[in-house]
Amino acid sequence: MANRDVERGGKKNRGANNNNYFYDESSGETHWTSWLIPAIVVANLAVFVAVMFVNDCPKKITGANKQCVARFLRRFSFQPLKENPLFGPSSSTLEKMGALEWRKVVHEHQGWRLLTCMWLHAGIIHLLTNMLSLIFIGIRLEQQFGFIRVGLIYLVSGLGGSILSSLFLQESISVGASGALFGLLGAMLSELLTNWTIYANKAAALITLLFIIAINLGLGMLPRVDNFAHIGGFLTGFCLGFILLVRPQYGWEASRTNTARNKRKYSMYQYVLFVVAVVVLVVGLTVGLVMLFKGENGNKHCKWCHYLSCFPTSKWTC
């Protein structure tokens, strides 16, 4: 997932390091030290090692034409590329370790899979792609807004992505932190919109971010990619950004020392966006969970939605 700097935080007069950002006014907010995002990266790496330990390819793969990849890693070696081209474990191991599977969530009451699937990855390529994206996106957000708000966006967006994925993809398993990552992208977009007055190059920031989001959602329409998790995570994070990432409007900091020109800390449109986002988020998650545990199939309610996750062409089928 690509990323470019589109916003700026931290304390006033931080020097030349801020030359590439789009803020017009420096805020007096605390510049946080990022520790949660690195901890999440370490946790994902540790979980992947644990999954490969449980997978134990050499013990389970037999036959001359079914050799594990990188056999020198012994029990940590990967499944044959025909089975898993991402250099990772088998689907049965992922299912055992907590992958998202509709039947187990609905019929076997294993709702915890909606969260555990965020910490699993299909292979080393999948893992490295997501973790690099998380570092590029998440560390800067955590430095600006702190670990509590970014952590909430990450987890709740991952849940939103899992819910939408379960409603539309009911014949396969799903794993990965992509829903949570798209939630951070969605939060970046809503943060830009709700804090519009503090940006200098508004059009440049908006176009840059929309381009990044469009490219990544477009890639999600390729086969074997769970774009419903991306979309669900993005929409959840988009709402959360209006709720958790609101900043004081332009000029409020300076007006506090001038009682004759005192400004409101937040503008009316920020309050409106906050209320609307709360309502949409609560209703959306509630309706999604009710539909999921009632066993509803989202494709029956939206006949064309399956194209959002995989668009068939002459080069591939879905």
TrEMBL record:
Keyword Nucleus among UniProt keywords: no
EC number in record: 3.4.21.105
InterPro entries on file: Peptidase_S54_rhomboid-like, Peptidase_S54_rhomboid_dom, Rhomboid-like_sf
TM region positions: 35-54, 118-139, 151-169, 175-196, 203-222, 228-246, 271-293
Amino acid composition bias (Basic and acidic residues), ranges on this chain: 1-10
Domain Peptidase S54 rhomboid: 109-245
Pfam families, alphabetized: Rhomboid
Catalytic activity: Cleaves type-1 transmembrane domains using a catalytic dyad composed of serine and histidine that are contributed by different transmembrane domains
Keywords for this protein: Hydrolase, Membrane, Protease, Serine protease, Transmembrane, Transmembrane helix
An individual GO BP term: proteolysis
Region annotated Disordered, chain positions: 1-20
Localization of this protein: Membrane
Keyword Hydrolase: yes
GO molecular function, one term: serine-type endopeptidase activity
Bilayer topology: Multi-pass membrane protein
GO CC annotation: Golgi apparatus; membrane
Class in the EC hierarchy, top level: hydrolase
Similarity section: Belongs to the peptidase S54 family.
Role this protein plays: Serine protease involved in intramembrane proteolysis.
UniProt-recorded name of the protein: RHOMBOID-like protein
Record organism: Capsella rubella
